[in-house]
Amino acid sequence: MAEGQNVRKLVDIKNERLSFFTPAGEVKALNDVSIMLDEGEVLGIVGESGSGKSVTAYSLMGLTAHPGKLLDGTLWFNGHQIETMTEKEMRKIRGNEVSIIFQDPMTSLNPVYTIGNQIEEVILLHTDKKRKEAHERAKELLELVGINEPEKRLKQYPHELSGGMRQRVMIAIALACEPKLLIADEPTTALDVTIQAQILELMMKLKEKLGMAIIMITHDLGVVASMCEKIAVMYAGKIVEYGTAEDIFYHPKHQYTKGLIRSIPRLDTKEHERLVPIEGTPVDMLNPPKGCPFAPRCEECMKICLREMPPVTNFGDAHYTQCWLNQKEEMEGGTANE
Amino acid sequence: MLKYIAKRIGLAIITIWVVATITFFLMNMVPGGPFLSEKAISPQAQAALEAKYGLDKPLFEQYITYLTDAVHGDFGDSLKQRGRTVMSIIKTKFPVSARVGGISVLVALCLGIPLGCIAAIRRGKFIDSFISVVATCGIAVPSFVICTVLMYFFGVKLKLLPTLGLTSWKHYIMPVIALAFYPTAYIMRLTRSSMLDVLGQDYMRTARAKGLSQVVSIFKHALRNAILPVITYVGPMLAYTLSGSFVVEKIFTIPGLGGEFIGSITSRDYTVIMGTTIFLATLIVVMNVIVDIVYKIVDPRIKLK
Q1: pLDDT at residue A8 above 90?
Q2: pLDDT per residue over A307-327, tens digit each?
Q3: How far is B110 from chain A (nearest CA, A)?
Q4: Which of B280, B218, B285 lies closest to B93, judged by CA?
């Protein structure tokens, strides 16, 4: 436990490198990832499948199980140094100081136990509450996440509830011990659009009410734009651009971020205009290229991009990229890109 | 629920009737008869015997008579064991088999489920391979081999355990091991594979993310889901094991129902064949109903219709 840490700072991941050792070889899931998050802040992590979004968040909970191995870096969370903690110490934090909601609420609840049982379980585990108090608390939580007739719902099984309702239950479980940090791993991907909006709205409302920080993992830029204060864009196990929502959406610097934003469908386009994709496919994480992982797909690719990984280019306080192009511009002292 | 039970009882009666009918006609199609093997019998005496037991009547009439009697609870007298009714044979022999069989099933469950879980949790490790090898042996080796090996080592060589009869608790050890071997191995494999499936489920990840220890997440969250295939298997298996194994009973000279069942077939003891078959069929049907009800208790998603 480090008391010297800044109290306001909740998460501080520095230079995390994490690999999965699979039979096919080492998959470098995270390569030099750094993330900072203050209390009560909302961070969005966006990127394609396999870019390391979830792994970054899971590693904070010590959930990068068996084949995953942390190779380097420090992970601070709420005064705990995660990488030095034992499994037993981690268990006290999980579900308590940091909790998570998953993508698929249909399969994330145990089908053979009642909703009440599954909510009360986490309360009984982390607090001194007795069974009856836990039951009352569970009822409160269901009301909090907007489920009516909580007494009746507590006795129901997951298969008796709809998808949106189950995700609300997952949120209730996650919030049971008033965590400092809520990790939302694509919480709306498996839900239909109207329910998506309801769930996001609920999350924002609860954040205001309870003051927890949120890490929002998604590949939906719309979700990020509406919710997040800071955004990390990940590509092939690296954070290629990091900044405030305004930086990312109005002043993107990295070619990948620009591509992502170009690919969003717009309301003001002409009728038959096609969407603009980013050409190419993500890199093979078993054999990542030597240079910038995005170079093979980058329209502005230079020779050096294929040879060497670009260093960090800072644009002000909390906006940085890893791109040779930005390095070049900085050296030329211009902002020709804008 | 009441409607469901009524429906199941109706189905059970039909099942048992079908089994009885098929057995009755098959049994009579097989050459030979209860009074043919004894040489010293005169044709007059044989005719008299057949008349006494109604075997001289047309087959269909015999069938109707048998069914009418059976419905009234009269399963007739044994044709070969003088003065004993089929009911009294089942009543004295079944408890013996059921005791040995019941203990065996308990042993199989108590060993098979935990070992299967351990193999699944330690997947790919030495203990998993070891358990898999033992399980494969248990399924592949026939029970008479196990009986003989056990008897040779513990009975003859080491003289630790008695080899005949069922008079003390020591007598139970070898027959129980022999009877429990196959179901233990089978339950181990079933538990392992369904446990592996369950461990990969999303709700197991939720359990970990809640901060539950591995022991709690396995015993509370995984086992109840993984146990369903085992329940399916245990129902009919229990019926078979309780009604006795011919091989094990013969080798250890246990006076159980399994020996009676096979013995009656070789001696064409028609009434005993019918009685034991109907008894076993009833037992299996009852076990299946119990399995369905237990299923509903374990997994609330299942609806009984």
Answers
A1: no
A2: 888 888 888 778 889 889 888
A3: 22
A4: B280
Using one digit for the tens of pLDDT, what is the confidence trace for A203-221?
999 999 888 999 999 888 8
| Region B167-182 average pLDDT | 88
Query: Would you call B298 an interface residue with chain A, using a CB distance cutoff of 8 Å?
Result: yes
DSSP A97: T
Among A104, A112, A173, whose Cβ lies nearest the Cβ of B300?
A112
Q: What is the percent of chain B with per-residue pLDDT over 90, rounded to a whole number? A: 38
Query: Range of B118's domain?
Result: 92-261
CB–CB contacts below 8 A, A to B: 69
Q: Which DSSP string do the residues of chain B spell out, in sequence order?
A: -HHHHHHHHHHHHHHHHHHHHHHHHHHHHSS--TTTS-TT--HHHHHHHHHHTTTTS-HHHHHHHHHHHHHTT---B-SSSTT-BHHHHHHHHHHHHHHHHHHHHHHHHHHHHHHHHHHHHTTTSHHHHHHHHHHHHHHHS-HHHHHHHHIIIIIIIS--S--S--SSHHHHHHHHHHHHHHHHHHHHHHHHHHHHHHHTSHHHHHHHHTT--HHHIIIIIIHHHHTHHHHHHHHHHHHHHHT--HHHHHHTT---HHHHHHHHHHTT-HHHHHHHHHHHHHHHHHHHHHHHHHHHHH-TT----
* Closest approach of A42 to chain B, Cα-based (Å): 20
B261's torsion region: left (phi>0), alpha (psi -120 to 50) or beta?
Answer: alpha
Cβ atoms of residues A83 and A74 within 8 Å: yes
Flag whether B84 is in a domain.
Answer: no
pLDDT score, position B37: 60
Question: In this complex, do B300 and A99 lie within 8 Å of one another by their Cβ atoms?
Answer: no
Q: Cβ of A170 and B206 within 8 Å?
A: yes
pTM here? 0.82
Give the pLDDT score at A338. 43
Structure confidence by residue, pLDDT tens digits, B139-160? 999 888 988 898 888 888 888 8
Q: Which residue in the set B209, B224, B300 is minimally distant from A157, CB to CB? A: B300
Which tokens hold the place of A82? 């995660």
In a domain, B223, yes or no: yes
The answer to whether residue B209 is domain-embedded is: yes
Q: What is the number of domains present in chain B? A: 1
Q: Looking at the partner chain, which of B207, B213, B298 has a beta carbon nearest the beta carbon of A112?
A: B298
For residue B6, CA distances in Å to A117, B2, B13, B288 come to 33, 6, 11, 15
Could you tell me which of A224, A204, A222 has the C-alpha nearest to residue A44? A224
Tell me the CATH number at B184: 1.10.3720.10
* B288 domain-assigned: no
